[in-house]
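User: My collaborator sent over this chain with a note saying "see what the structure looks like." That's all I know about it. Can you take a look?
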Amino acid sequence: MSPAEDTIRWHEHTGDKVVYWGGLAHTANGNPRTVSPSSPPMTHRNAGSYLREHFGAGYVSIGLTFYHGMAPYPVPAPPTEFADAILGGTGLDAYLLDLHADSPASVRTWLDTPTKTRLIGPHYDPDDNAAYHLSGGSLADWFDAILHTQEVAPVRFLSHAKS
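Assistant: Without extra context I'll predict from the sequence alone. Here is the result:
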């Protein structure tokens, strides 16, 4: 069973609100979307598109993006043609961007134009940074909002448990 089917079934069974947490390639409303690198690049629907189809506006897709950092390997700044590069050029440490809010025409055009954004996963090679991306749609098609942070760091314990 797919993650989307599992999520829908859980919601129908419990009636609870559900947070579906995953990477951009899974949560985006990608119908279709292309994931690279793969040879050939894989183009197909993902869980987020099935969830949007089923829940309509009740499925809110929030893209998590960042500019650079450690994950736990070094992740350099994105290529300039990637949406992450523009999002990282604001000078803000972190922000939430509503992709459906009123905006100037030039901003709306950029949000509605097909783009690329990075995909950092378990098989990422920082020396081939540009090869790892999501494409085939626009930010406004994929997401309802973007939560962007400039720098990421590997997970660490908030405190040490006492034995």
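A starting point for your reply to your collaborator: The beta strands are 33-36, 42-44, 62-70, 74-75, 94-98, 115-118, 133-137, 145-152.
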